[in-house]
Amino acid sequence: MKKIIHTDHAPKAVGPYSQAIESNGTLYISGQIPIDPATGKFVEGGIKEQTEQVMKNIGAILQAAGYTYEDVVKSTCLLSDMDNFAAMNEVYGKYYPQNPPARAAYGVVRLPLGALVEIETIATK
């Protein structure tokens, strides 16, 4: 059985998808982009500020579903420019100081709404 997860503390979906789905003790969080849920707009700044907002959005969804960053087992990071990898990694790493999840990172041609970074996440209990 799947459960739809939604919180007003993360951006609304910008298409026909859910913020997250929980199924059989696993939480699948859709790719998050750097939209501030309070304003509905991108955060100002570069890759570090955008990554920080993405991670906050992920945290809000984790919390709404009763999970924490420690429950995250896999992340997929999409970057519009791989030259931003080190700066994204610096911010991302603050959220996983010990026992970080498995991860893949890809450079892509373009991300939704012109984002510099998008991160999808899987967590388990």
Structural class: alpha+beta
Beta-strand level of the residues, as a percent range?
A: 25-35%
Mean pLDDT: 96
Helical content class: 10-25%
CATH architecture title = 2-Layer Sandwich
Radius of gyration: 13 Å
**Total strands:** 8
The low-confidence parts are: none
Spell out the CATH superfamily. RutC-like
Distance, first to last CA: 16 Å
Topology as H/E string?
A: EEEEEHEHEE
Task: Give a description of the structure.
With about 120 residues, the chain is an alpha+beta fold. The chain has a single domain, classed as 60s Ribosomal Protein L30, Chain: A, CATH 3.30.1330. It is about 25% helix and about 35% strand. The chain contains two helices and eight strands; from the N terminus they run E-E-E-E-E-H-E-H-E-E. The protein has helices at about 45-65, 85-95; strands at about 1-5, 20-25, 25-30, 35, 40, 70-80, 100-105, 115-125. The protein has a six-stranded mixed β-sheet, with helices on one face. It has a two-stranded antiparallel sheet with strand order 4-5. Helix 1 (about 45-65) packs parallel to helix 2. The two termini are about 15 Å apart.
SSE layout and pairing:
Elements: E1 2-5, E2 20-23, E3 26-32, E4 35-36, E5 41-42, H1 47-65, E6 72-79, H2 85-94, E7 102-107, E8 117-124
Helix pairs in contact: 1-2
Task: Please name the defining characteristics of this protein.
125 residues; alpha+beta; 60s Ribosomal Protein L30, Chain: A; 6-stranded mixed beta sheet; 2 helices; 8 strands; globular
